Amino acid sequence: MQEALAARFAAVALGHVGQEYPQKLDQVLEGPSDLKRPSELHPVFHGSFDWHSCVHAHWMLARLLRRFPAAPFADTIRARFDAAFTAEKVAAERAFLARPSARGFERPYGWAWLLKLHAELEDDRARTLAPLARDFADRFAAHLPRCDYPVRHGVHSNTAFALTIAADWAAMHDASLLALFRDTAARWYGADADAQAWEPSGEDFLSPVLMEAACMARLLPPDGFPAWRDRFLPRLTEREPATLFTPARVADRSDGRIVHLDGVNLSRAWCWRVLAASFPLGDARRALAEDTAARHISASLDHVDGHYMGSHWLASFAVLALDGA
Description:
This protein is mainly alpha-helical. It folds into two domains: 1-105, no CATH class; 192-325, no CATH class. The chain is built from 15 helices and no strands. Helix 6 packs antiparallel against helix 7 (123-143) and helix 6 packs parallel to helix 8 (159-173). The two termini are 12 Å apart. The model has no long low-confidence stretch (mean pLDDT 97).
């Protein structure tokens, strides 16, 4: 990823992480006192249309800051972080989370993105956000043992995405949680074979098939993944399942759900790049995966800063596609 593209992404995110309205709240009202402004309910993450998009926009800014610490946009990101990540504001986020009605708040998508954000932060900012990250790690630890089945469809509740996104935090901070992620992925997906890709659905921003493959690439032992991959996707050289090779068409980018399909193109590209790295040099499937990733990126990269229904979140997925594999 070049600095000019990073500057474009940073400008998009900095334009909306503090934009309080429009706002889609994820909230159960326990009484009239719960009717508060988004910035009161979520003093850290009240921008970007919804809580989880604000979290992963901050992750993207942290990633860009790490990659380009001397770029012209870097000081603006630092100032945003200094204003957002304070002990008082994090305590308010934790207080919202501690309410009995918030047990399922942002499960599992927002949980995973918060951990990924914390894993990307450095020094004092990481220490300030650490208690909130621990809250979500504890929620994963409590939830996964009683979650008998994965969620496979291509939206926020997709469990393969959550395990993949949260794994870096677990690898850095909690070996027992990483082991639980590995065991859960094997339990949910280990016996899957010959994937049939009935996708994308009309509101997907994830590929159920490719996301599962990327999850197993992250969580299976390196010497165990190739055999699983070849059972799961045995016909890649024949470009089957065919739908995985064809970028999705986006008919209306002003529609907040149809524009998810730009996300499916970008997240597929990320997954294809993960798969490409799993094949040895010279394997025809490696070049095929890289080419397919490039075509998916090309289909949607120009639209990350278009209508607000896409621009409040798509740049994060573009960074995953370009920098996450």
